[in-house]
């Protein structure tokens, strides 16, 4: 397994209730349990398979929650359970950085999101075709007095022409606007020697990702 495959394995979308509103979620689960129990009670009252009621309820609720976490949360009404916005998709912009001098690279940011997780890939292209890509190792939404940002630790695999070495870094992207008018802007720094730090600006381009620059 290559180094990039290892990080992609680490970066698989998991399932948690981190971004769910606790009280409404519990109420929804209880309502689902009551509705399903009522359904099974009337459906199975003439059979001898009542022992299926408990496991069936739990299984169906689990499936509904999985579908909601994966897809349904993006739609109106269904997103009322979620505390974060949908910023998934592809963004285009620029990355300004200072090492030996001030420089600018074009960049593409791709965000993969479920109701409970967010993963980020960043692709850049610079001088001498030094293409690089980074993947988030951990990412989280933070709310600072009403100002929302997505903060993440990432691993950069280095450039394909070996000019840029592999390294780790951290990024804070403030979120402005919503839907097709979403803009991401923030700062990043790395653990390279000498240290690199810079500024990123990107605007929403498309809901579809490409997995490359």
Structural class: alpha+beta
Order of helices and strands: HHHEEEEEEEE
Share in β-strands: 35-45%
Which stretches of 5+ consecutive residues score pLDDT under 50? Answer: none
Oligomer: single chain
Largest sheet descriptor: 8 strands, antiparallel, barrel
Number of helices: 3
Query: What is the molecular shape?
Result: elongated
Describe the structure.
By secondary structure, this protein is an alpha+beta fold. The chain has 3 helices and 8 strands. It has helices at residues 3-10, 22-43, 53-70; strands at residues 89-98, 102-113, 118-125, 132-144, 147-156, 167-176, 183-190, 197-206. The chain has an 8-stranded antiparallel barrel. The protein is elongated and about 80 Å long. The protein starts with a helix and ends in a 7-residue tail after the last strand.
Briefly characterize the structure:
By secondary structure, this protein is of the alpha+beta class. It contains three helices and eight strands; from the N terminus they run H-H-H-E-E-E-E-E-E-E-E. Helix 2 crosses helix 3.
Indicate the topology:
Layout: H1 3-10, H2 22-43, H3 53-70, E1 89-98, E2 102-113, E3 118-125, E4 132-144, E5 147-156, E6 167-176, E7 183-190, E8 197-206
Helix pairs in contact: 2-3
Tags for this model:
alpha+beta; 213 residues; 3 helices; 38% strand
